[in-house]
Specification:
By secondary structure, the chain is of the alpha/beta class. About 35% of the residues lie in helices and about 20% in strands.
Length: about 425
């Protein structure tokens, strides 16, 4: 038995899961641990330094949102000799957790401050402090990291007798209060969008920026970048042809409510019931789950999270894609599907309507399982160019992250204004 336990604990994912479960059990339920204050102490380093606040950096946590934050950070930090990544949720970080950062120094909160590139795990910060100098600037990437950044810059202003609280960069990638309906976390997340003049906001898409403007949120300055295809995925777009199958590809994440997985299953069952002799296959990618019967012997088969090569392969062989997002952010899967030549079904949300971007995308105005089944019929019959020729958006989407470079000078100017006053 001891041998079995030791063998199981050698698995890093299992070990991290058990550690997180244990630590969560130690946290009083009346507390919200992610907003635990990060105290400040004076640093001997007074030069300019850019700090990125992200929840975690281990490879298993590097997906969509965190990956985008890291890419923006790497572009912005070109203007700084010193840079630091502060992990707000991760309690322990080792070099092997993410080999891509092998040339960065790994430090604890209680260690002395220094020059160069640093990573600090701050998930266990109760009673500890972060060394902050006069020239430290911060990038927040989620609502609780924005609360920490705002608090640090308030204390920085007081400690160094600065003329006014400096601005921090807030990367906004969705309307995050919606992740926690009518709750304490909803209120806390919404409060960070009212920091106003303290924030230089960077929005993941103009669609999301327009939503915030429509809701009345105001910031010191605001910028937006448009989505782009992952470089490795882009390189695989024109890989060896496997031929299109009569296959519907679903972005399936049962644990993420805004992806409306139950609604997708209901819509597929409705469509199969209408077409009991259909010879289509159904595949779910994104999150592993049990295979789900759809009726008439058809099954929604789960393949979970794939490698980029595997994801590209299944994109090239599928004909119709379904990816829902019940939020103002457009999300990347429907755009990736369209870029790879699939006919895509998604949903509208207030001002969001991806069908205006490409005739490969059908955005359902009023989403329910009946309208989803209708949309499958519509897209099955829709004629589109096989290679997306003439589609200006998809041509742009398949390029690069040039928008980040365009933002760089303006954002640095905004956060460096009166930087040492």
């Amino acid at each position: 038995m001891r041998w079995l336990v030791r063998r199981v604990l050698r698995n890093k994912k299992i070990r991290n899961y058990l550690r997180a479960a244990y630590l969560e059990a130690q946290t009083p339920k009346e507390m919200i641990p992610e907003v635990t204050t990060l105290e400040l102490r004076e640093s001997p380093l007074q030069e300019g330094r850019l700090n990125l606040l992200i929840p975690a950096l281990s490879v298993e946590y590097i997906f969509g949102g965190i990956n985008t934050a890291l890419e923006i950070f790497h572009v912005l930090r070109k203007g700084f000799r010193h840079a630091r990544i502060i992990l707000t949720d991760q309690r322990i970080f080792r070099g092997e957790d993410n080999p891509a950062f092998g040339d960065w120094q790994i430090r604890d909160l209680q260690d002395g401050d220094g020059e160069g590139l640093q990573i600090i795990a701050a998930g266990d910060r109760e009673g500890k402090s972060l060394a902050v100098g006069k020239g430290d600037r911060f990038i927040a990437t989620a609502w609780w990291t924005a609360m920490l950044a705002e608090g640090l810059q308030k204390r920085q202003t007081k400690r160094y007798g600065l003329y006014r609280v400096k601005k921090f960069v807030y990367l906004i990638q969705d309307f995050e209060p919606g992740f926690y309906p009518w709750s304490a976390r909803y209120a806390l997340a919404a409060s960070t969008y009212k920091y106003g003049e303290k924030v230089v906001a960077i929005f993941n898409t103009a669609i999301l920026r327009d939503y915030f403007e429509g809701e009345g949120y105001r910031f010191s300055t605001k910028y937006a970048f448009e989505p782009y295809l992952n470089g490795r995925l882009r390189a695989l777009m024109n890989g060896r042809s496997v031929g299109r199958r009569r296959q519907i590809l679903v972005y399936g994440r049962p644990s993420v409510e805004r992806n409306a997985f139950q609604l997708i299953v209901m819509g597929l069952r409705e469509w199969v019931a209408r077409n009991p002799n259909v010879e289509w296959s159904f595949v779910s990618v994104g999150e592993i789950h049990e295979d789900i019967p759809l009726g008439s012997g058809r099954v929604l088969r789960s393949v979970g999270k794939l490698s980029l090569d595997g994801y590209a392969r299944i994109l090239r062989e599928s004909t119709i894609g379904i990816s829902l997002m019940i939020s103002p952010h457009p999300s990347y899967p429907p755009l990736e599907m369209a870029a790879f030549g699939l006919k895509v079904i998604t949903n509208q949300f207030k001002g969001k309507d991806l069908s205006c971007l490409s005739d490969r995308i059908y955005s359902i105005p009023n989403i329910d399982h009946i309208s989803l089944a209708d949309a499958i019929d519509t897209m099955q019959e829709r004629e589109v160019a096989p290679d997306g020729s003439g589609d200006a958006f998809l041509a742009k989407f398949g390029t690069n992250n040039a928008d980040f470079e365009k933002l760089r000078d303006n954002v640095l100017r905004d956060i460096e204004h009166d930087a040492f006053s």
